[in-house]
């Protein structure tokens, strides 16, 4: 059975870095990074743009899940609310797949360090990202990559997918 593997977590936690290696390690896999769908200048979080992005993502996910050449569809994104997952998944309800949701985490100190390395210095913004504990409440497999190498984190994700 096909798998839809959702990798979520805070901005800067390492989702894209992990997925860049993960999809190459998995046989018959495809990776959709939600960041690609938000590459606009300027980024405007309007209702119209939010609907467009959601429609684009679900369109791609449907096509990936319906493609007979692939068995593993990896989707990485920043979502910290179950109801947002529900909106996406409701548009895929007629498709046959096994859902795996994995949340990548790291310590607050490590996340701040990673975000600063990306040039994000605004303390209010950093604190709003870091102190969001909504990921803790999600029904997902949690993987803390604070002290892991990327390879170790990828292996933990693979283990979570296969269990």
Report the total helices.
8
Rg computed from alpha carbons, rounded to a whole number of angstroms: 16 Å
- Straight-line N-to-C gap: 14 Å
Decide which structural class fits the backbone: alpha/beta
Helix content: 40-55%
Classify the beta-strand content into a percent band: 15-25%
Top CATH class: Alpha Beta
As for the CATH topology, it is Rossmann fold
The description of the largest β-sheet is:
5 strands, parallel
Structural shape: globular
Total number of domains:
1
Average pLDDT score: 90
Strand line-up in the sheet with most strands? 2-3-1-4-5
Order of helices and strands: EHEHHEHEHHHEH
Overview of the molecule:
With 163 residues, the protein is of the alpha/beta class. It has one domain (3-162): Rossmann fold (3-Layer(aba) Sandwich). It is 48% helix and 18% strand. It has eight helices and five strands, in the order E-H-E-H-H-E-H-E-H-H-H-E-H. Strands 2-3-1-4-5 form a five-stranded parallel beta sheet, sandwiched between helices. Helix 1 crosses helix 8 (150-162). The longest helix has 20 residues, at 47-66. 24% of the residues are buried. The model has no long low-confidence stretch (mean pLDDT 90).
């Amino acid at each position: 059975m096909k798998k839809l593997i959702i990798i979520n977590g805070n901005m800067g936690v390492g989702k894209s870095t992990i997925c860049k290696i993960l999809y190459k390690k998995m046989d018959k896999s495809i990776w959709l990074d939600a960041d690609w769908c938000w590459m606009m200048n300027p980024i405007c979080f309007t209702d119209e743009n939010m609907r467009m992005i959601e429609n684009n993502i679900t369109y791609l996910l449907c096509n990936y899940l319906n493609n007979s050449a692939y068995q593993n569809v990896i989707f990485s994104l920043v979502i910290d609310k179950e109801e947002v997952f529900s909106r996406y998944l409701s548009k895929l309800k007629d498709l046959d797949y096994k859902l795996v949701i994995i949340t990548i985490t790291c310590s607050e100190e490590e996340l701040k360090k990673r975000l600063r390395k990306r040039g994000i210095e605004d303390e209010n913004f950093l604190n709003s990202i870091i102190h969001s504990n909504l990921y803790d409440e999600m029904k997902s497999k949690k993987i803390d990559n604070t002290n892991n190498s990327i390879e170790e984190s990828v292996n933990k994700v693979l283990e979570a997918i296969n269990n």
